[in-house]
Amino acid sequence: MLPILGRILILGSLGAAVAGAVLGFVAGRTLSLDGLKWARRCAWLYAALIVLAGVVMEVALLKHDFSVSYVAQVGSREVPTWVTVVSLWSSLEGSILFWGVILGIYIAVATYLTRGRYPEYQPDAIGVWLSTAAFFSFLIAAPANPFHTMPNPPLDGNGPNALLQNHVLMAIHPPFLYLGYVGMTIPFGFACAALLKGRLGHAVLKPLRESLMLPWIFQSIAIMLGGWWAYEVLGWGGYWAWDPVENASLLPWLTATAALHSIMVVERRGILKGWTVTLVQATFLLVILGTFMTRSGVFNSVHSFTQSAIGPTILVFLAAALLFSIALLAFRIDKLETEGRLEGTASREAMFLVNNLLFVLLTFTVLIGTVFPLIVEAMKGKQMSVGRPYFDSMVVPIGAALLFLLGVGPALPWGRATSDQTRKALLPPLIGAALFTLAGFALGVRSGWSLVTLAFGGYAAQVTIDQMFLPMMQRVKRGESAATAFVDGQLRRGRRRFGSYIVHGAVVVVIIAIAVSSSMRQTAERTFTKGQTHRVAGYDITLLGVDEREEPHRLSTIAHFTIVKNGKHIATLEPRMSQYPAMRDPIGSPDVYSTPIRDLYLSVANVDPVAQTATITIYIAPMVFWIWIGVIIMGIGGLIALVIPSVSEAPGRAVAAEHEIETVRPPPRPFAPARGDK
């Protein structure tokens, strides 16, 4: 029953998506209000059907209905309930279904929030959204169908991949990643609609910015959660290995970040319109490329799914989306008229442009390092890899330059600045650069690039703090109390500005934490017998004993260590080896004692419960804690920036951008009213 119901819902979602896409594009050409209304209805119908299909699959998983092929593949009666729930995205077919569910929710919400507000752009946007939805419904209905009926259902299964059972972060990281990845479809639709109409006016900038900001927040947190999972589960003491699938999540984040800055320039100065829509399109294309990289099996990664037949299908869709985007840019980008001009190099908009170019260069650098081995293998039949030395040597200088611009750009005014204004803006933050560098050197930082990062970070930090509280300080100087100035100037009138600078400050924290933790990490390996103590980096580590713990879904061998520092007990750590039924080799799980200053990280290399011995690798890593905290603060700042202020904090064009109706170029004619409408 459930397999049949699931297939019916998927086929229904495919039909609704195809019909809605056609109606949307036709309504965009004919300006038919009837067509737009039916396109919206198809969008909501698609969302309802695909979400119901996801619910049916969750019911099948929880009921252990092994007549459903996907449940037979990833289900198990022995795993905890939370593992059963997250099994929806633990393997290929379920992950594509989950993608469709998230896309349906995004499309339904976006269609509802934009109804009646952007009639010029919404039909084509819906057409693009539902075209993407139709493709993924086709994937679910045909090559990645999770609802096949098993003729001889097994009594039980092995459960999902053991790595996904090994940490509760697998219940959190993939949903955030999908909310980031899939959400990039919405701004892509708006960008394509703007090109189809030949206008990127102020009316569409708000939904474009907001629809890009929300998935950017999710993607930022997802990347952090992925690094945290790698740190907590894989046992190598690191959080980023330049794995191809890790890179696949980073690439669209880079272009989306560039696009958010570019949109700000369009709002303020009326320039970079074509560049902005190009960045938004590139973000979506990189999402589809990342989907191919993850699900085609062409890359060997702990994050990727097994070899499958859907890789070529996704590649065809990527090619179609790329050709569609190029055609739109080729024939319509000249219609996006520039309303202003770049007035000088010493201006905020000029620095934003340089910032954008560096983001694109960084994206291209990571992309080349990721796909080059695949290209070589396809052309010459030789396997090769591009490792960490390439990425570190290429990415670190670009990242340092971006950090420096994080300070320089906001310090400069919009428009042409005089020499005196430039000096007053750029010289004082050198104090922050010097203080951060001296503090790092005093604390033992000796790596050249780490000291450069601290200098640039100090520069950016001083600018960020100054700019963050500038509206409040201006009001205090006029006689207002600090509390009133903060509530009214920062939170009520300037929430978007305030949130943006919170993001900037968090970025400074994250980059400095990455630089320091990478350059100052210490590693040691020790073998313990029960009761033996080793002293490492000021910590007295004692093995209390080794025991085995049997659970329904695994057998764990746990080494118990007590940690003492300066004569005081501070923690008990329990790294382990776990054996899962579906895995031939055991999986190690480290344990971490984390503080704001440093982490003590124990990873099991070998453990023997009979002899009561354990060999562990010990990592001492400073400031890792601040990577996780910094990204969470980035997300909070992004959410604050999403709340558009009731009164804009900026003069001139920004005020118009928030309040006035578009007057640049009126549409050819209004939407034709539905028959019988008044």
What are the salient characteristics of this protein?
single chain; 678 residues; 6-stranded antiparallel beta sheet; 4-stranded antiparallel beta sheet; 10 strands; globular; disordered C terminus
Helices and strands, with pairings:
Blueprint: H1 2-30, H2 33-62, H3 69-74, H4 81-86, H5 92-113, H6 122-141, H7 162-165, H8 173-183, H9 185-197, H10 202-233, H11 244-269, H12 273-295, H13 310-332, H14 348-380, H15 388-411, H16 419-426, H17 430-442, H18 448-468, H19 470-477, H20 482-492, H21 495-519, E1 522-529, E2 533-536, E3 539-551, E4 554-565, E5 568-573, E6 576-579, E7 587-589, E8 591-594, E9 598-608, E10 613-622, H22 624-642, H23 653-659
Antiparallel strand pairs: 1-10, 2-3, 3-4, 4-5, 4-6, 6-7, 8-9, 9-10
Helix pairs in contact: 1-2, 1-6, 2-5, 2-6, 5-6, 5-8, 6-9, 8-10, 9-10, 9-12, 9-13, 10-11, 10-22, 11-12, 11-14, 12-13, 14-15, 15-18, 17-18, 18-21, 19-20, 21-22
